[in-house]
Amino acid sequence: MEARPKILIIFGYHPKEIFATEVGEELLRTNSNPGIKIVRYTGRPDRRTSTYNLRRFVGYFDPLISPIILHNDDEAGFGAAIVYRVKSQEKIRIARPLLLGFASRYGGLVFCGGFLMHSTNYDLIDIELSSKMGLQKSRCLVNDFAEYLIDLYINKGIRL
């Protein structure tokens, strides 16, 4: 039986988001960390703001820490945004300084935010990527972020 991944990175959730899919494929090709599992989304599409099918897909892999879903947004005017979707305001309060601490490593290219999703089994982290950042820098950002989350979990007992 394959070990339970600490971090699950999902790409291809929105098939029209070509750049996020390219980053996901590059991560899949280059990943050497056994704690990080990278998968292409193969579930049914969700409608509007529902994430029912996505959450069910995540459940097949049951990550220890968090699933990260890759998206792309070239219209927003930033390199990347990390969006944390959680069950409670308390989780946002704990996560905000940790996410901002990570984002500060990228000198204004990465922005963070969070919002509540009460009906959820899993917290979700979306990373909105801009193709202006480039494939390699985006791949490094996602990989660094996944390793940052693993480090928080292992060394500080914090699970985002």
Question: Summary?
Answer:
The protein is α/β, with parallel strands linked by helices and 160 residues long. The chain has four helices and six strands, in the order E-H-E-H-E-E-H-E-E-H. It is 38% helix and 23% strand.
Walk me through the structure:
There is one protein chain. The chain is an alpha/beta fold. The chain has one domain (7-156): 3-Layer(aba) Sandwich (Aminopeptidase). Helix content is 38%, strand content 23%. The protein contains four helices and six strands. The protein has helices at residues 18-30, 52-61, 89-103, 135-156, and strands at residues 7-11, 36-40, 66-72, 80-86, 110-116, 124-129. Strands 2-1-3-6-4-5 form a six-stranded mixed beta sheet, covered by helices on one side. Helix 1 links the parallel strand 1 (7-11) and strand 2 (36-40). The protein is globular, with a radius of gyration of 14 Å. The two termini are 25 Å apart. The model has no long low-confidence stretch (mean pLDDT 87).
What is the topological layout?
Elements: E1 7-11, H1 18-30, E2 36-40, H2 52-61, E3 66-72, E4 80-86, H3 89-103, E5 110-116, E6 124-129, H4 135-156
Parallel strand pairs: 1-2, 1-3, 3-6, 4-5
Antiparallel strand pairs: 4-6
Largest sheet: 6 strands, mixed
**Can you tell me the CATH class?**
Alpha Beta
- Which structural class do the helices and strands define? alpha/beta
Count the strands?
6
Please tag this protein with its features.
160 residues; alpha/beta; Aminopeptidase; 38% helix
